[in-house]
Amino acid sequence: MSVLALAVTGRGLVDPTEPVIRADDEGLLRGRAAFETLRVYGGRPFRLEEHLDRLTASAASIGLPAVERRRLQVLVGLVLPKAGHGDATLRLVWTAGPARGIPSALALLGEVPEWIESARERGASAISLLGVRASAPWLLPGVKSTSYAVNMAAEDEARRRGADEALFVDGEGIVLEGTVTNVWWRVGDTLYTPSLDLGILAGVTRATLMELAPASGYRVEEGIYPLERVLAAEEAFTSSSVRELMPLTKIDGSPLVRGPAADVLQAALRELAAKV
Q1: Helix or strand holding residue 90 (H, E)
Q2: Number of domains present in the structure of the chain
Q3: What is the rounded distance in angstroms from the CA atom of residue 7 to the CA atom of residue 76?
Q4: By residue range, what is the domain housing residue 264?
Q5: Which of 84, 110, 136 corresponds to the end of one domain?
Q6: C-alpha count within 13 angstroms, C-beta hemisphere, residue 170
Q7: How far apart, in whole angstroms, are the C-alpha atoms of residue 185 and residue 82?
């Protein structure tokens, strides 16, 4: 992410190229930090409070000091002017700090990656990779932490195989989620998506689509489904705050038809974002 502005607790706005994390911060040493990434539309962050709710829950699951929302809101207010009236990405980080020390908060404003719109236009390809169903508390179900090495390794493997995205499936072939996305598919007027009971991330955009779907003519069903259900669908797509809706046109080499739901809901998402 190309950083446009950076704000840090206790220091305010700082040069984005300046080091701001202590060498003994447990977020750096052990990955004991939580983060959120969201879209900024027209200079306004979309569903900031929902992202702060999830950040708070993630921090609690990891055992971090309680998130101080006001401190983060102040940091957001410092970096947002750099977006002007345009679109951007906003990343919030809450770290443990040094052992028995004070936690740190960061707000990073960045550019929206250029590749997203071209990928949406052509449709993305994906491969399925073995993932773990987070069925126990110590597997941190639904937590968004900076311990993202596995996800990034999966993305690298997808690219190595010529795909844009990786979808995690468990040992029984149950579809879970993407590396940074939730997974959707459509049959008729029903949209299917994996249940949060699988320990997947409760995406803020996922929740937003559940709100938007009925007005767009679709109903939503959550459950536990094998990957074969996705491959047999009439269309499939992923959702995330930064990538928004991304149509999938190929999974594991099997072609998928690009259907109407992804485009209709993408337009509805943008329309909603323009109102807030």
Answers
A1: strand 88-95
A2: 2
A3: 8
A4: 115-275
A5: 110
A6: 14
A7: 37
